[in-house]
Amino acid sequence: MPLVSIITPSWNVEGLIEETIRSVQSQTFADWELLIADDCSTDNTPGIIADIGERDPRVKLIRQAKNGGPALARQASIDAAQGRYLAFLDSDDLWLPEKLERQLAFAKEKRAALSYTAFRRINETNTVTGRLIEVPASLSYGQLLKNTAIATLTAMVDREISGPIAMKNEGYDDFCLWLSILERGHTAYGLNEDLARYRVRGSSVSSRPVRSAKWVWQIYRNVEQLSLIRSAWCFAHWGARAWLKRREF
């Protein structure tokens, strides 16, 4: 069985998915499987994935029966995952070649249930559009409630330490997952190295700040069931950090 299972949802990314896959295939650490759950794309995304998978059996296509959004697609990949470690990568983002190798060594050293790294932002033509987004050395549950530091493409979970992993069908399903892990008493650890490229597109699920803010508020109130006062306190901090991060971009 592979040591690392890479969790990737896809939908209508025929112009980008091959480059994302190539960034995984270029990793200096090779003991992985890439599980791409296609969410009923209407373009040739699944055909491209299947074609690459025929030549590299580590790349595996999972076809969703109906379009259900990224949370359900991620869960389909998680359900099929064989690795101890789960690494998350969206279908339009990229990893630098040493990402897995460096983060695995870091996660083992820290005995981290959840780890994350720094990254840079790129546009649709791969142009870097901002400076390095650095990350805090560690985050507790309470700190993460007020923070935007864990970008999905940088996250890695050690399932032997974290306990059960399940996505919630929420707008920020990844944020919900990180919170569920840390709420058990774990600490997340940040590797402040430039190892990933986060692509921002106008059609990205999280590209609209107002909608993102609504999702976070709903998570505070409906998922984490925080009081109104604590929700407002956390939201004020989250919003300030989100604004600063966008300025850094």
TrEMBL record:
Superkingdom to which the source organism belongs: Bacteria
Domain Glycosyltransferase 2-like: 5-135
Residue ranges the record marks as coiled coil: none
UniProt cross-references to SUPFAM superfamilies, sorted A to Z: Nucleotide-diphospho-sugar transferases
Classification via PANTHER family: GLYCOSYLTRANSFERASE, UDP-GLCNAC:BETAGAL BETA-1,3-N-ACETYLGLUCOSAMINYLTRANSFERASE-LIKE PROTEIN 1
Record-given protein name: Glycosyltransferase family 2 protein
Native source species: Bradyrhizobium zhanjiangense
